[in-house]
Amino acid sequence: MDLEIGTMGTAVAQLQNDLNFCAYDAGPVDGDFGRKTEEAVLALQAYHGLEQDGIYGDQSDAALMGEVRIIQEALTKHGYHLAIDGAVGSETLAAITDFQKKNGLTVDRIVGNETLKSLGIEIPRAVNQSETVVPSPTVKPLPAGNGKGQLVCINPGHGGSDPGACGNLQEKDMNLVVSLRLGQLLQERGFEVVYTRVDDRWMALSDRPAIANANNADIFVSIHHNGSASPESSGTLVICYPGSTNGLRLAQLVLNGMCNRMGLSNRGIIQRDDSDVTYSLMPAIITEGMFATSPSDCHFFSNGGAELEAQGILEGILAYFNN
Predict the structure, then answer these.
(1) How many other β-carbons are positioned within 10 Å of the β-carbon of residue 124?
(2) Pairing state of beta strands 284-291 and 219-226?
């Protein structure tokens, strides 16, 4: 049976347990297939090169069970006696807990990169990823075009006690850097800008689109950076609300702009419900410029990539209003 948004029961609880074990962060194991579980399934599907529809079917199940089996096999090589069945049960959880304790790891029963390394598991390259090449920032003329007083609401995702995806950099910090630079570039070209936050603070998800709505923004741009269990995952994508013609047009133009500027792999557009794009009253997008969990992406970000990302989003916004 396929599992998707709205599905409830023990099968969902087992899925959440298995996803969390493999570091996909499905949230609390409550048996309710909600947004957090869907995001974890999407990350699993992206990593294995599957269709990214957020529905947990046979192919996703085979991929996740395969990951669990690899971990179980490694645990048996370290002297633990457990069934290699691709499901995370009490024996597997007890084994990983003991292994993490004995090896000085964080005892969280999550098999992230450090635990994988200690187990002797080589982190495989995602099926849909080619050899990672760290792009060199290139100088291009700034995008042409100007605003005519249009108001852009910019939301730097996460913040405060919510760091978002974490690797060599924290997502919340990356989001703020790009957001503030984007706002500056927009204001220089005649746009009005309002931010949901301008410093490192926590904000409720519902408050963010509410700020855009209260200010009658023309568009809402939520800045995020992606995360994955694999440090090899890289690339750029944009999220918009299903059925929003203008939202989709804005998403495509911004995606084109970011890919044009940064040169990272194009991971496409995802149309799905999300608090930012669902509850805003204007065309809205969520950008995922690069991966906070990718060492190469973080290096790129810190060496000119953040500027190129802001320029790419600007390019898309200018194209949206000027064409």
Answers:
(1) 14
(2) parallel
